[in-house]
Amino acid sequence: MGRECAVDDAVKEWKEDVEVKSEVTEIVLVRHGETTWNAAGRIQGQMESELNEVGQKQAVAIAERLGKEAKPIAVYSSDLKRAKDTALMIAKSCFLSGVTEVADLKERHVGSLQGLYWIDGAEKEPEAYSAFFSSQNDLEIPGGGESFDQLCDRSMNALEQIAKKHKGERVIVVTHGGVLRAIYMRITQASSAGKLLNASVNVVHFRDDDEKWIIDSWSDVSHLSSVGFLQRGFDGDARL
């Protein structure tokens, strides 16, 4: 009798575990590979910049890693080229036919800072530079830029739509440092996200039953040991 009860309890626990997992979407968030502008310390925002040689190698490395893990049902990407190029390599490695572009996953528009070098930002565009680093999250960046709240809202809305579409599944999303920072800070309510490295793996879970986000792992670059990465990364919390 005792053995039968133990078996019944084990089956019940297994069923409950399966039901819980079926409600959870796993999203692997990836920052695109290093670009020419990343390496030069130039502000990209929503402007285009190509993956450089290191960035190409990073994209290959992350694609090889993700190709060996649990197969995703889909790969999503920002519509900016540096993200799309990274995403296409990942999709190929995961035996997926293509990438779904989502405009709301693109980098933050940083107004008149776009195209400048970070080292020159404070001098050439002091108002925009100050707005970018401001703790006033509803402050838009002069020159047509977004506020941090606007970035958070569109990033999280896009992510939530993907999560609800793929309930109980695993998907990969390739995006940008600013977007990852927004997602991390919105989920954790932390005041800083620290460095966000190119081609890093960041895993979040979305529980559909209570619409709760959970960070499983963050800023993993273990797959880049042979190709390297920019140590400074993207750090939107620190002035130069």
From TrEMBL:
GO CC list: cytosol
Active site: H32, E107
UniProt GO molecular function: phosphatase activity
Family label: Belongs to the phosphoglycerate mutase family.
Lineage: Eukaryota, Viridiplantae, Streptophyta, Embryophyta, Tracheophyta
Gene3D superfamilies: Phosphoglycerate mutase-like (3.40.50.1240)
Protein name: Uncharacterized protein
Cross-referenced Pfam families: His_Phos_1
Alphabetical list of PROSITE patterns matching this protein: PG_MUTASE
Source organism of the structure: Microthlaspi erraticum
Residue sites binding substrate per the record: R31, H32, G33, E34, T35, T36, W37, N38, R82
InterPro entries (UniProt xref): His_Pase_superF_clade-1, His_PPase_superfam, PG/BPGM_mutase_AS, PGM_Phosphatase
